[in-house]
Target: Geranylgeranyl diphosphate synthase
Amino acid sequence: MEFKYSYPVDPSEYDDDGLCRGYPLRNHRDAELVDLGTLRAQENWRRLVGPLGIYKGGLGPKFNFVSLALPECLPDRIEVIAYLNEMVFIHDDGVEDVSKQQGDELNDVLVDGFRLERILSAQSVKNGKRKMQQDLVKKLVAIDKERALKAISSLTEYFAKGSGRRNHTEFRTLDEFMRYRILDVGKMYWVGCLTFAMALTIPDDEMESLSELCHPAWLSCGLINDLYSWPKERDAAAKKGVGHVNNSVWVLMKEHKIDETEAIARLRGRIRVCFVQHQQKMKESNDRTDISADVKRFMEAMQYSMAANVVWSRSCPRYNEGRQFNERARGDKVRAQTTAASDKPYRKTRCE
Model:
């Protein structure tokens, strides 16, 4: 892959927690736009939907999730992708805190709100969440209509099939749980994001091959998320008096009758295997002549998303209580600019 928009991050600058040694990590050169898109989404949600408090989202002490996960995102797309990703984070947190019926209703609202015939009409909407959806889609379509429509289709599938739909189901085995978890963690959502971000075209007849080749990557996404979100989810379940936790650690504990320490050790082992398997799948795809160049580029890009998931999750305030947001100087500058803008009368910006 030719690198135009990112730079390599020195291993001394981050902690890979012993999970992805040898995997490269890169950061987008326009990371300040990622911060801006993230904070714009938060401010618009507060203004149009409801209070958020001090929201943690995609920010981190050194790196924003999107700037690491999509280091070769085209510069004109990075801010709007960050905006979209933050909306998804906010929504997912809301689904986690309510009953199954309420969560399904929240997901159904977003599925309905992403109907293209409604969004692309000239009719304005009064509902705050739908206004955010409408403005977002119009921005995506203005940049790249063909890939935007596919991205929205993938996003809608995520809200319809994943996004906490079975958070209240008690899965008996890890294999059973992961078949759902791959959808829940956003497999189709990330396909839409990555293809739009890098202007990739995956033919419909190659989607099955892509799904099979990227299976270790999708599996790693769910397992990594469960590893680092476990303390937060465990404690939240205990406070609510809920009898189970929708997390791989919990499933392993119950399936194998082991304690938390052993379950975490097994989970970490599975994650390492996923990284090895993805490298093998990348080599396999590069040697094949029956798949397109963009499938191969997608495979290569996923290795950066996988490493980013570890590094960001390891340190982010979203999963690590007490951690600061962006400690780097530009983070303070962007937050100051956004706060100042939010105190003024509303005016349209790039992501609004």
User: Anything to note?
Assistant: Residues 98 and 104 are 10 Å apart (CA to CA).
